[in-house]
């Protein structure tokens, strides 16, 4: 990791990086703000169509949409043209179509010179680097907007910091070794990212995030660097989501990291005999987490990020049985099984 970080630091101090950032800052008016969705292949394209239909026909959102897929087998020209015809403006690109640059870690390349297919989380961050928008709302394909997201770009906290992330249900899942591997002092970085509040922040949940690439292209480069070492770091964190705040800190921008202050709510269904409780051999009944309701900084519901029961061509979705408001930090919520101990 050290050798790759030295290459990255050299790039961030180079004329090539300054030129890349200048290109982002000079994005034409129609590429200043937009939505980037990582989606490709039969499964995720189903999610994408639902998201696009909701954006255009239910929320009347006119923001341009960019689709990033991960390899030529995940999208064809006819499908992209159909999406644009029904839900335009929609454009797209293969995030893996171009070779990685020298400062990017590339463990292998294909015979055509393309980077080897990365995991979905590292490629998601790479798509952010290769987006054509300056101000980007990045959505997972299963994170459904509940209100027109256009106004999020005018959020005062986003205007001040140039980045806006959303909180997860739990805190402190990031191991101290992850900070160390990124050259950070864990205690100091945690205090910085908590903004001096005196208590730890919730972990980040990256089903949706908002970032000014012109202002924070360096932090995004560090985020891709960190995620490209998924074989080293992912045992210390829960995927890409936990590495965004660490990347801001490692880029010297910990004070510019911003997280929505309203906690997520939950969408649940009642599960019979499936809740695994520590110290008990027999599973019990419990509320099964279907997804998170993320809010804006004004407290209004903004996104429904599904963890299960996702749109499918092969099955009907079952209805939710419980929707909550913002939840307190839950230490008994198990992210492996997504169950929570609540009274029925």
From TrEMBL:
* Superkingdom, taxonomy of origin: Eukaryota
List the molecular function annotations (GO) for this entry: alpha-1,2-mannosyltransferase activity
**According to its record, how does it sit in the membrane?**
Single-pass membrane protein; Single-pass type II membrane protein
Which compartments is it annotated to reside in? Endomembrane system; Golgi apparatus membrane; Membrane
Gene Ontology terms describing biological process: mannan biosynthetic process
Q: Does the keyword Cell division apply?
A: no
Instruction: Provide the alphabetized UniProt keywords.
Output: Golgi apparatus, Membrane, Signal-anchor, Transferase, Transmembrane, Transmembrane helix
Q: Would you tell me the Gene Ontology cellular component terms?
A: Golgi membrane
Family annotation (PANTHER family): ALPHA-1,2-MANNOSYLTRANSFERASE MNN2
Describe the family membership recorded for this protein in Swiss-Prot or TrEMBL.
Belongs to the MNN1/MNT family.
Instruction: Supply the name of the protein.
Output: Uncharacterized protein
- What taxonomic classification does the UniProt entry list for its organism? Eukaryota, Viridiplantae, Chlorophyta, core chlorophytes, Chlorophyceae
């Amino acid at each position: 990791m050290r050798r790759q970080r030295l290459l990255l630091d050299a790039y961030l101090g180079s004329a090539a990086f300054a030129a890349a950032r200048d290109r982002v800052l000079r994005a034409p008016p129609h590429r200043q703000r937009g939505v980037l969705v990582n989606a490709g292949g039969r499964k995720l394209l189903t999610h994408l169509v639902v998201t696009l239909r909701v954006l255009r026909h239910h929320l009347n959102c006119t923001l341009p949409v960019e689709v990033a897929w991960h390899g030529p087998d995940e999208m064809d020209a006819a499908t992209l043209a159909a999406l644009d015809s029904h839900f335009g403006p929609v454009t797209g690109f293969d995030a893996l179509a171009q070779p990685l640059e020298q400062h990017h870690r590339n463990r292998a390349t294909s015979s055509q010179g393309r980077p080897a297919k990365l995991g979905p989380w590292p490629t998601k961050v790479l798509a952010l680097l290769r987006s054509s928008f300056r101000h980007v709302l990045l959505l997972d394909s299963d994170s459904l907007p509940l209100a027109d997201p256009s106004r999020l770009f005018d959020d005062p906290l986003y205007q001040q910091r140039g980045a806006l992330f959303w909180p997860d249900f739990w805190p402190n899942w990031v191991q101290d070794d992850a900070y160390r591997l990124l050259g950070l002092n864990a205690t100091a970085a945690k205090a910085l990212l908590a903004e001096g509040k005196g208590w730890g922040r919730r972990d980040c949940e990256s089903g949706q995030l908002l970032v000014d690439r012109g202002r924070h292209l360096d932090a995004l480069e560090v985020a891709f660097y960190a995620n490209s070492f998924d074989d080293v770091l992912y045992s210390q964190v829960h995927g890409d989501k936990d590495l965004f705040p660490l990347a801001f800190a490692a880029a010297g921008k910990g004070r510019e990291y911003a997280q929505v202050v309203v906690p997520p709510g939950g969408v649940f269904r009642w599960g019979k005999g499936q809740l695994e409780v520590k110290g008990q051999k027999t599973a019990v009944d419990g509320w099964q987490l279907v997804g998170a309701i993320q809010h804006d900084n004004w407290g209004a519901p903004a996104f429904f990020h599904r963890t299960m029961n996702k749109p499918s061509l092969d099955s009907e979705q079952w209805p939710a049985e419980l929707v909550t408001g913002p939840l307190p930090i839950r230490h008994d919520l198990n992210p492996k099984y997504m169950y929570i101990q609540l009274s029925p």
